[in-house]
Amino acid sequence: MATSPTRAPQTARPDWQPEKLPPFPAIALKALNLIAGRDTSLLELCDLIRADPAFSTAILKIANSPLVAFSRNITSVVQAAMLLGFQRLKSVVVTVGLKAYLQGPITPLMQSCWQHSVACAMIAEKAASGNGFDREFAYTAGIMHDIGRAAMIAAAGKKYAQVVEKEADEPCDLMALEREVFGVDHSVAGVSLVKAWDLPAAFLEIIAKHHDREARVKGTASLIAPSCRLADALGFSIQKFRSRLGYEELVSAFPETARKGFPREAEAIIADIANEIRVLEAV
């Protein structure tokens, strides 16, 4: 099945009602506002984390994990914040927030959505480090780019399973199937959530255009679409696509200066992503 990546603009149909969905965790929303510069109270973020047993436990587990490898045991959220760095703390909180949003018994579909988001985030971060962009914002953008899909799965996992059961060659094919089942695709669903949850506008373009190959986006937003495609090709996808492009060709889709952040062989980045996913899934 082959479809054009371009499509007519959509609006959310009445049967997709984001205001009726469970809200994104308040602590993660606070972190998103800090990352986007809409808030400045880092101390308040730490207070919110400390007041939430699940988040504080997750942050401490990450701070004491091989992912960070501090030389001493971290026993408080403030200590973790100081050693992780407030920038990294904010992106970790958003990552834990997405995991918390996909609550309930973890299904293979939820796990695939989660793993794809983490993979996209790590790839975007690597690209940003080579291109001089904000690495933490790139990582967070990668985590948030599929929030519409996460919401679809969290709200109607069995219904979304009907989408991935069908064959697709490209992500745009999968989005066409989403429109058949939900009336909207996950990009449009994500945009509606940004508005319903009053998320920072900085994420609008990223969420709206991460599958649009003809979109002309600049800055960090330009890294998300190729990061998403590379995550799929490396095996971190909701649905297996028959990609005709190899690792080198997919990396070449990034701005030239961004390519410096990538290892020469695909196996190295796959191992890095798998290791981070393993640690994050344990919290």
**Oligomeric state of the chains present here:** single chain
Average residue-wise pLDDT: 85
Instruction: Tell me how many strands there are.
Output: 0
- Spans of at least 5 consecutive residues whose pLDDT stays below 50 are 1-9
Broad structural category: mainly alpha
Kindly state the percentage of residues in helix.
55-70%
Q: Secondary-structure element order, as H and E?
A: HHHHHHHHHHHHHHH
CATH architecture of the largest domain, please?
Orthogonal Bundle
Describe the protein.
By secondary structure, this protein is an all-alpha fold. The chain folds into two domains: 23-101, no CATH class; 103-283, Orthogonal Bundle (Hypothetical protein af1432). The protein is 60% helix and 0% strand. It contains 15 helices and no strands. It has helices at 26-35, 42-51, 53-63, 77-84, 86-101, 108-131, 135-144, 147-155, 157-164, 171-182, 186-196, 204-209, 221-233, 247-251, 266-281. α6 (108-131) packs antiparallel against α7 and α9 packs across α10 (171-182). The longest helix is centred in the middle third of the chain and has 24 residues, at 108-131. It is globular and about 50 Å long. The termini are far apart.
Condensed summary:
The chain has 283 residues and is an all-alpha fold.
Spell out the key features of this protein:
283 residues, Hypothetical protein af1432, globular, mainly alpha
Write the layout of secondary structure elements.
Blueprint: H1 26-35, H2 42-51, H3 53-63, H4 77-84, H5 86-101, H6 108-131, H7 135-144, H8 147-155, H9 157-164, H10 171-182, H11 186-196, H12 204-209, H13 221-233, H14 247-251, H15 266-281
Helix pairs in contact: 1-2, 1-5, 3-4, 4-5, 5-7, 6-7, 6-8, 6-13, 6-15, 8-9, 8-11, 9-10
